[in-house]
Amino acid sequence: MLNFTYVNPTKIIFGKDQIQALNDELKPYQNETILLVYGQSSIKKLGIYETILAIAKSLNITVEEEAGVRPNPDLSSVLSGRKTCIDKEVKFILAAGGGSVIDCAKAIAFSATIENEDDVWPIFLNQNQATHAIPLGVVLTLAATGSESNGNAVITNDKTAEKRIAGYPFTYPKFAIIDPTYTMSVDTHYAIAGVIDITMHVLEQYFSPTTRTETSDYMSLGILKSVMENTERMRQDPNDYDTRANLSWAATVGLNWILQQGKVGDWATHRLSYPITQYFGTTHGYALTSIFIAWMRLALKYNPEIMTWRLQRLGKEIFNVSDPETVIETLKDYYQSLGAPTSLTDAKITIDDAIVDKMVDHALKLGHLGNVFTIDPDRAKELYHLAK
Ligand code: NZQ
Ligand code: ZN
User: Which ligand 1 atom minimizes the distance to the CA of 100?
Assistant: First the structure.
């Protein structure tokens, strides 16, 4: 186990009707201007929009809006929100929605501190850095990314279609209001994609080259077990509160970095999935499962020492099987039972050498790829082809 310092500054305000906590959380911004960031329509249908405006009005807060943020949020929304923040001297940003809205809000929060608009995208290319951000808070509506309690922002450049990530300690939300009842109206496509995303965050941290990390490992496997059980319950009864509450909490702890303490995660599947979303528009969760089985097979080939016992531990705790190959097949069956693609063909994606070259190029530009085994361009090609 490795040394670590763990800080997570996000205050989690969890449960039914917790949106009323905004009365206290927004008090410091009385008589100021805030920016409300949201998506297409869900917060209006859920009554969240009206509640936020009413609370803001009672505190004499002026609310500017960045509306219509799309899944896989666009750089243009970030730049538009940034301009509003600068023009209107916005003091606080409130994101109300899923991961896309929260990521967009975080990117607005740090880009508003950057003097020139042209310097914003280079931050996502790792060519320059932000140093601070406007504070932000979250009202969460979809259990998936964990973005409500981490500093990461995943943004797509709508001109080049490149999907990239930037993350800072100062873009952790100050608070996250998580009312699981909101998640009941998410449609099946996104609810299942969300569940998959949670499992993938847990597994990308579980599959690690670091040894003797039982505490983090069993926490991860416990969360995985809860997510699997509660996904089944969600499919039987989408309106059961405790089911949604367990999934929502799993999403938050799945990527608030507690599971990765004392070890390194892998994250190659996430990085390699971004070009799939970029080129084929595949929803994040399904882009992940379309290549994850191939990743596990290659990981077992290139790092059998680690993968053998890690797959055995996972198999024993979750599926009651122990042969590593069988564990991979069992995970494949599990994702298929959710209706998720476990190959590129399943995801209705056809690739040729030319597009694979471009995908590899994009994925490797994101930086070092893989910790269980290092993925160089040849291995990335091998992985995409194996995933066909
Ligand atoms: O636009 P609205 O109307 O809000 O509709 C959204 C959207 O169409 C809808 N939705 C959200 N809450 C709803 C609802 N519909 C009905 N009822 C509700 N309560 O769901 C659709 C998808 O929303 P989105 O925010 O895109 O989903 P998700 O939370 O899965 O976020 C995905 C994005 O997060 C990034 C992904 O790459 C992707 O761009 N990620 C962010 C991470 C992070 N910041 O740590 C980590 C992840 O690995 C991931 O990369
Ligand atoms: Zn993810």
Answer: 25
Residues with C-beta less than 6 Å from any ligand 1 atom: 39-42, 46, 71-72, 97-101, 103, 141-142, 144-147, 150, 152-154, 182-183, 185-186, 190, 193-194, 197, 255, 270, 284
Pair 72, 50 in one domain: yes
Element (H, E) at 153: strand 152-156
DSSP tag of 373? S
- 164: enclosing H helix or E strand: strand 163-167
Query: 122: which strand partners?
Result: none
The verdict on residue 4 lying in a domain is: no
Residue whose C-alpha is closest to residue 85's, from 105, 112, 117: 112
Atom 39, ligand 1: residue with shortest CA distance: 72
Q: How far is CA 107 from CA 327, 349, 351, in A?
A: 39, 30, 32
The answer to whether residues 173 and 244 belong to one domain is no
How many domains, in total, are found in the chain?
Answer: 2
Residue-range definition of the domain harbouring residue 306: 188-386
Average pLDDT of adjacent 10-residue blocks, the chain of 388 residues = 98 98 98 98 98 98 98 98 98 98 98 97 93 98 98 95 95 98 98 98 98 98 98 97 98 98 98 96 98 98 98 97 97 98 98 96 91 97 98
CB count in 10 Å sphere of residue 124? 23
- Pick the last residue of a domain from 181, 199, 223: 181
